Amino acid sequence: xxxxLRAWDVLVPASIYALGVVELLSVQPGGWxxxxxxxxxxxxxxxxxxxxxxxxxxSATLVVLTMPWAGTELNxxxxxxxxxxxxxxSFARWIAGYRGLAGIAVILAVLASDYMFADDRMHDxxxxxxxxxxxxxxxxxxxxxxxxxxxSEQLRRQQALIRDQAVREERDRIARELHDVIxxxxxxxxxxxxxxxxxxxxxPARAVExxxxxxxxxxxxxAETGRLLHLIRDDGDELGLRPAPGLADLPALVADFRAHxxxxxxxxxxxxxPLTGGADVSAxxxxxxxxTNALKYADGPVRLRVAAGPDRLVISxxxxxxxxxxxxxxxxxxxxxxxxSLLGGTLxxxxxxxTGFVLDVDIPLAVEGAR
Length: 371
Description:
- Keywords: ATP-binding, Kinase, Membrane, Nucleotide-binding, Phosphoprotein, Transferase, Transmembrane, Transmembrane helix, Two-component regulatory system.
- The chain is α+β, with helices and mostly antiparallel strands.
- It folds into three domains: 7-123; 156-232, Up-down Bundle (Single alpha-helices involved in coiled-coils or other helix-helix interfaces), CATH 1.20.5.1930; 247-370, Histidine kinase-like ATPase, C-terminal domain (Heat Shock Protein 90, 2-Layer Sandwich), CATH 3.30.565.
- Helices cover 63% and strands 10% of the residues.
- Strands 1-2-3-5-4 form a five-stranded mixed β-sheet.
- Helix 2 runs parallel beside helix 4 and helix 4 (79-93) packs across helix 6.
- The protein is elongated.
């Protein structure tokens, strides 16, 4: 599975290496040729710090900390300090909890071995304070940035929920108004039609006038209904004003998610004939929800498989989940499980090292027809 690199993933290590090259070529301390190579390797490792922060940051720092063994003293160059700072920041920014402290512990242990075995100078408590002062600020800054990012994401979701709630409340109000308009108009039309039926022989002119009023009332009701329906119409078809979708619409659904940037590898073995209504629309909604979750949380391609047999429908969706993504609420999976359960099917989820998050749905098609 490919790793999505951002500009900063490459720009920061490249800048550190560029500064290191200029510094080494200018000062040319002992073993500077080896130092050029080691700083280059460390910079390459830092490119993956967002995807594999603990491995990348620890490895990059350990590489530059071997420089004293190659003849370049750490106090002769400053690029290793930048490598350690970026690594400690990554431990806090891209790792949940405090597991990143394990990387700092390894760095401190190797740094202590450098002081004891590769540095001939005398060392005391001030060196410990210096090491802690060097590694702690980037880590603390990373924790602050991660906390702010999490709060921003939580605020964004809360705002989305509030907007959705406001939209639903407004649509409920419009729906009540629509009910009142139709009920009032139909009542008036029934009364006037009944009166016209009584007058059609006794007073044809009056009957025609009443029927004209019925037609006017109907036209006004249609116009008002059209206006209200236009207000509550939505692209997601939450109100069900469009024909219910089914498995035949899955290719268009997959194409729509691809247009939104999701890398979908779809294997669609669709039935030749439409399924019964309940199974058809529920299967479509399950796939739609699975791809929606993948669009939010997937890190890499999404493998979707839909296979319809004589008596069963199988849906499988697998994708890796990015470590930087927050955990979802689980409401989408709960909704899918309820849909599948009503059809007598099963829904299973899990994580595997090979494919990441896996969603498997099995729907017995005979259940719907038997009811």
